[in-house]
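#onboarding

Welcome to the new folks! Below is a worked example of what a typical request in this channel looks like: someone posts a single protein sequence, and someone else replies with the predicted structure as tokens. Don't worry about understanding the tokens yet, we'll cover that in week two.

Example request:
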Amino acid sequence: MANITAEEFDTLSDFIYKKTGIRFESRKLYFISKRIGKRIDELGVETVAEYIRMLRFADPVNQEFQKLTDLLTINETYFFRDFPQLQAFAEHCLSEVEKKKNAVKDNTIRIWSAGCSTGEEPYTIAIILLEMLNYFSTWKIEIIANDIDLTVLSKAKQAVYGKRSLRDVPQEYLDRYFIKKDSESYVLQKKVKKMVQFEHVNLSEKKEIRKKRGFDFIFCRNLLIYFDDISRKRLVDQFYVALNEGGYVFLGSSESPGRISTAFKLKRAGGYIVYYK
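Example response:
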């Protein structure tokens, strides 16, 4: 493990924050040290200070920083995570938006999955749309999913999942939308895969995020806990701008939009509180 000093930790933490908006607190020192040690060993770098200098001055296209970011971001997720929230989306919010769209003869639905990790969230959303939308074939669906981690994006595109990721998938959905690969894994069917478009995006890149517009739903669940208050508010405010009027934002269960921004309205959808524009 790399022997990182408190001063080196602060320097590296500030550097990561400026590039990603993610703030690693001092209690993460051991976590950071362990992962930096892995990169230092692989690169043959002698000290943490040398590694930091390399990141700052000898990594012009952020190739090494990307590898470090991939190591530091945790991507624990699974299909149908936080089911009550998804139920509110499927049974109340989606049907409401569907009715409004039908009334004005608009057949498009656009959804943004920000911080999509290995793809379980956007693919879950795709399955819900296949199950819940009336006259599905008449709709033009666009699900944009992005993450800062290239490794997890590669896995998302492959769409091969083990039992841990599939533990909350109803058996009928498993039979309908997955193909058994072997005793330990399943492959998602092409009709679901083709509904999701994956992008490599850093959510702290203002110019990139400002391009996002016209979404009916935004999902960014269990990601904002890694951001500080300033970065968190900046991103949630941008979600508001990116939503259509009447659109919904879904954050993690401990990340209420109401505690971050006053822009969103709230209402009850079944037994769940939801936030909308």
